[in-house]
Amino acid sequence: MPLRALPRRHLLLAAGGACLGLARPAQACEFFSSHMRIWHPWTRATRVDADTAKLCMRFDEVQRTDRLIGVETPVAGGVRLAGPGAPTAGEGLPLLIREGQDLTLTEDGLHLELLDLQQPLQIGRSYALRLIFESAEPVNAMLNVDYVGLR
Predict the structure, then answer these.
(1) Residue 148 in contact with residue 123, Cβ under 8 Å?
(2) CATH homologous superfamily for the domain 27-148
(3) How many Cβ atoms sit within 10 Å of the Cβ of residue 42?
(4) How far apart are CA 148 and CA 44, in angstroms?
(5) More confidently predicted of 57 and 22
(6) C-alpha span between 55 and 110 (Å, rounded)
(7) First vs last C-alpha separation in the chain
(8) How confident is the model at residue 11 (pLDDT cuts 50, 70, 90)?
(9) Mean pLDDT, rounded, for 11-19
C-alpha cells in the first residue's frame, strides 16, 4: 500500500514509533532532574556497629548550575560533605554543581557521608534516596549497596 494511502492515524503511529528509537532509554542506575543526570548513587555494605557510610555518585549532563541542598533516606539520620574540599566544619550541604561540568563524588575524594545509620547497609540491597536541589525539582533515586566496606 503506498504511503499516501495509509489512514492518518497509521501515519501518526508510524511517526511516533520512529521517534521512540531516537530517545535514549534510562539505565537502571541513572536518575534525571530538569538540569542534570545523576549516575549510580552507591555506598559500601557496613558492619553492624557502623554509624556512617560514604555516599558516592556522579552528576553529569549539567545544563544549569545548581546546588544539592538536601539528601533524605530512611537509612540515615543526616548527611554532610566530607573528604578533600569539604567545608572545614564538616557541616551538611550545599554542594555546588556547575553547568557544563561533571562532578564525581568518590570514596577517596569529595563525597557525602551518611550519618547516624539506622541499620546496617547490606550488599545487594537498594534503599530510597531523595536528592533535594536549590533550583531543580527533588529527584527520587535509589541508593545501591555495591561492595563490602572495611568499616
Answers:
(1) yes
(2) PCu(A)C copper chaperone (2.60.40.1890)
(3) 19
(4) 5
(5) 57
(6) 10
(7) 68
(8) very low
(9) 42
